[in-house]
Amino acid sequence: MARYIGPKSRIARKFGEAIFGPDKVLSKRNFPPGQHGVNKRKKTSEYGAQLNEKQKAKYTYGVLERQFRILFEEASRSKGVTGEVLLQLLESRLDNIVFRLGIARSRAAARQIVSHCHITVDGKVVNIPSYSVKPGQIVAVREKSKSLEVIADNLAGFNHAKYPWLEWDNASMAGKYSYVPERADIPENIKEQSIVELYSKQ
Questions:
Q1: Do residues 178 and 167 lie in contact, with contact meaning Cβ atoms separated by under 8 Å?
Q2: What are phi and psi of 85, to 5 degrees?
Q3: For the residues 91-117, what does the mean pLDDT come to?
């Protein structure tokens, strides 16, 4: 499966949530896409609901099926609650942290910024969006890239206090991943236990 590059509003309408951020189309047409979408939503089976949660998580974080399964297997081997650890692993991805720091306005834009070598981790350029950032590491805008208008515009007025596990230094355009967030701190509306139950059936 290739990464989805189609209309994001269509996916948001499928789940009935603005999973990619504020969505004008969803606010006006809060029903599934397609000619029958305006009709009342059908009751979803337990398996269907679990599958929807997995798909929602994948679309939200921009992760492909193989990547997602690898992360799940890593979470299942770790100490702690598997579903919570899975979300923590997703939150620790470099592209997600670049997004959370306000350097990019979306995770898709964050992946592009990382891929184009605009980001450093502990002073070294990292161009792998899936790179797993560890607590204590510093994620910063590369010196050559600090003058980029798109990055400056993204950071202007961004509320860095939204995510307490990230510390931002505006002068150096760098953020520290202070600690792994607890589930209650992660704002995404994902029922991670449903994903665990889905994989347990496979």
A1: yes
A2: -60, -35
A3: 97
User: For residue 140, what are the β-bridge partners?
Assistant: 120, 174
- Sign of the alpha-carbon torsion through 180, 183, 186, 192: positive
Strand order in the sheet with 124-125: 124-125, 119-121, 138-141, 174-177, 166-169
Could you report the per-residue pLDDT of 9-26, keeping only the tens digit for each? 666 566 666 666 555 555
Q: Strand pairing of 138-141 and 119-121?
A: antiparallel
The whole-angstrom separation of Cα 65 and Cα 122 is 29
Q: Is 42 exposed, middle or buried (0-12, 13-18, 19+ CB in 10 A)?
A: exposed
Distances (CA, A) of 180 to 16, 114, 164, 185: 29, 21, 10, 10
In one-letter notation, the amino acid at residue 112 is Q
Query: What pTM value is reported for the model?
Result: 0.83
* CA dist list (Å): 158 to 28, 115, 151, 168: 27, 23, 11, 11
C-alpha span between 1 and 26 (Å, rounded): 25
- Which amino acid would we find at residue 99? F
| Mean of pLDDT over the chain | 88
